[in-house]
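pasting for the record
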Amino acid sequence: MIEGNPFKKRIQGNEDLEAKFWQKVEQFVNDPFEKSLKTHKLSGKLKEFWSFSLEYN
């Protein structure tokens, strides 16, 4: 899992968002292409990795 500084700042101190994040991580581990995750392949330097959506803001 790759976390960027803006991500950490956004999630830290927000218990609801942090709980949602860990729930989505568990979902991703169990079924990486579950529709609600909106899983997508990254590009550029991170093209080997996949990402999922936590919120749409």
